[in-house]
Amino acid sequence: MASYNLNQVKVGLKILVNGDPCVIVGCDFVKPGKGQTFTKVKYKSYKTQRVNEKTLKASDSFEGADVMEKEMQYLYTDGHTWTFMDQGTYEQVEADAAAIGDNRQWLKEEDLCLVTLLEGNPIVVTPPNFVFLEITDTDPGAKGDTSSGGNKPATLETGAVVRVPLFVQLGEKVKVDTRTGEYVSRA
Amino acid sequence: MKTPPNDWRPSASMETLRLRAEMLAQIRAFFSAREVLEVETPLLAAASVTDLHLQALSCRYRGPGADGGRELFLQTSPEFAMKRLLAAGSGPIFQICKAVRDGEAGRRHNPEFTILEWYRPGWDHHRLMDEIDELLGEILGTRPGERLTYAEAFERYAAIDPHSASDEALRLRVEALGMDSTDGLRRDDLLDLILTHVIEPKLGHCQPTLIHDYPASQASLARVRPGDPSLADRFEVFAEGVELANGYHELVDPEEQRRRFEADLEARLHAGLREVPIDERLLAALEHGLPDCAGVALGLDRLLMLKAGTRDIADVLAFQTDRA
């Protein structure tokens, strides 16, 4: 992969920092009137989403990262890897547990996910912001409860556990925000 | 359908351009009232600065008197030509002009920018700082600036003595700022990093800050006072965390000036930078006699940024270089 000097650095450029793929989110040219040029670069890690800052001198450079983000369809898992397919090319990739992380609990077959690929291999899988999942286990709840009342835990078909209002029952489908893990409504 | 390109439009608002015109008129009135003569000097010249950290763009002139073509440098500041006028007896002078520097673009830099530069024969840099206070008072409505020595600024904002701290201590401090490697950085580079990253953002917030008594190693074209440590009669002006101006009690000794030019060329050679011709006409003017004087260059685009309340130089330029 190409290496970038500081004149090529710009927001959106994908780079490797100590082997970690990152995207540049800010850069600032610093030069005292009578001194050397420095560049302050802010970059976000694809894996941790954390933003860090670095100061570089004119002779420094970045290693480029072959990172691509692609919408792919989730097909299935064998418990060790999760398989996704590019709907345009039918090309399939396998994501490991590290790339899936806690997001495994939202993956439903045939849903479209955003897959971040480093040299073709998935490193991050982002589920849709909202998923529609069936409740496979929850207490029936006391009679007379209303929608303004309390809530209870419910296990969804993918294994995720979310808190749902008492009136929502086993077998119903709910809409969940995967970014917060919160129940939104009945689907 | 393709959207028509939008980059023909100015990057500054019309309101800011009016503010620029008003500022230029204020500056001219300021100097006219003080009987400082406005001058114009060449943008294209046979020589350029030797400074390790300033890169001049050059072009080739072909025509009468230069059939084979002649390299001309776009000036990074009007300093050398203005000093030749002073040596020729101009008296106090000022200039508002474009300056051009290769390799400089960012939120506070544009490859071509506007400089206000002026010289006061018979003055030292302290008296010139008083006049800067008056000028900034008129343009920005600020009170007279706070004055700190370079050492005081480092002690107050970075808790480090810039003159006595070891190179190792400076290196550790700079690494803590998020530099991977300080290899190849010299002591002055380390000091610059602490100044730009730690100190500068804190300067000039209620009133401008004027920093003087720079280390002799950063004298540039200022005279140096021998001592321990020896200090340069150089100052810088900061307002709202922005470096605004750089001035000197000017070096007038032609031999010392030649030594500094030659030391610069040596440093350029080491850094793999192109060799540039020494400005022999400036040296000849110093031989003839540059009056004792103080001079300063102030970035007018940055001054307008402060006046207009923006942090991006593109907002005060009719057309930044990207869309020029």
What distinguishing features does this structure have?
A: 187 residues, mainly beta, SH3 type barrels, OB fold (Dihydrolipoamide Acetyltransferase, E2P), 3 domains, five-stranded antiparallel sheet, elongated, B: 324 residues, alpha+beta, BirA Bifunctional Protein, domain 2, nine-stranded mixed sheet, 35% helix, globular
Explain what the structure shows:
The complex is a heterodimer of chains A (187) and B (324). Chain A has 187 residues and is mainly β. Chain A has one helix at residues 97-100, and strands spanning 3-5, 14-17, 20-30, 38-45, 51-57, 61-64, 67-77, 81-85, 92-96, 112-118, 121-126, 130-138, 151-156, 161-165, 173-177, 182-186. Chain A has 3 domains: 3-64, SH3 type barrels (Roll); 67-126, Beta Barrel (OB fold (Dihydrolipoamide Acetyltransferase, E2P)), CATH 2.40.50.140; 130-186, Nucleic acid-binding proteins (OB fold (Dihydrolipoamide Acetyltransferase, E2P), Beta Barrel), CATH 2.40.50. The longest helix of chain A has 4 residues, at 97-100. Chain B is an alpha+beta fold and 324 residues long. Chain B is built from 9 helices and 12 strands. In chain B, strands 1, 5, 6, 7, 8, 9, 10, 11 and 12 form a 9-stranded mixed beta sheet that branches. A 3-stranded antiparallel beta sheet of chain B has the order 2-4-3, with no helix packed on it. The longest helix of chain B is centred in the first third of the chain and has 20 residues, at 14-33. The A-B interface holds A 7, 28-38, 40, 52-57, 59-60 and B 51, 53, 103-109, 177-181, 184-185, 188-189, 192-193, 195-197, 218, 220, 236, 243, 246.
The largest pleated sheet of chain A is described as: 6 strands, antiparallel
Mean pLDDT over the residues of chain B: 95
Beta-strand percentage of chain B? 15-25%
**What would you call the structural class of chain A?**
mainly beta
The percentage helix of chain B is 25-40%
Query: What count of helical segments of chain A does DSSP give?
Result: 1
Distance between the termini of chain A: 46 Å
Tell me the overall shape of chain B.
globular
SSE sequence of chain A, one letter per element: EEEEEEEEEHEEEEEEE
Quaternary state reads heterodimer
- How many domains make up the 3D coordinates of chain B? 1
CATH homologous superfamily assignment of chain B: Bira Bifunctional Protein, Domain 2
CATH architecture of chain B: 2-Layer Sandwich
CATH fold type of chain B: BirA Bifunctional Protein, domain 2
